[in-house]
Amino acid sequence: MDERDIAELIEAGIPEANATVTRPRGPDDDDHFAATVVSPAFEGETVVAQHEMVYDALGEHMTTDIHAIELTTRTPDQVED
Question: Looking at CB atoms within 10 Å, which of 11, 16, 39, 80 has the fewest?
């Protein structure tokens, strides 16, 4: 699983999401990722709920392909600030 695959899963699972996924430890680290996700679906949700939405979008991949993911979640209004 690569960064593009993860971004596609997140974007497919969260309405109007835009996901940017990187490997913060470098290209040789196969299972640690970082994602910044922007979606209006996060409006009014706690950070915990926002992160749960991302985990739900990733589904079983969180236990099979992804060892760890560092999440930053924002609404579009938070990005504009």
Answer: 80
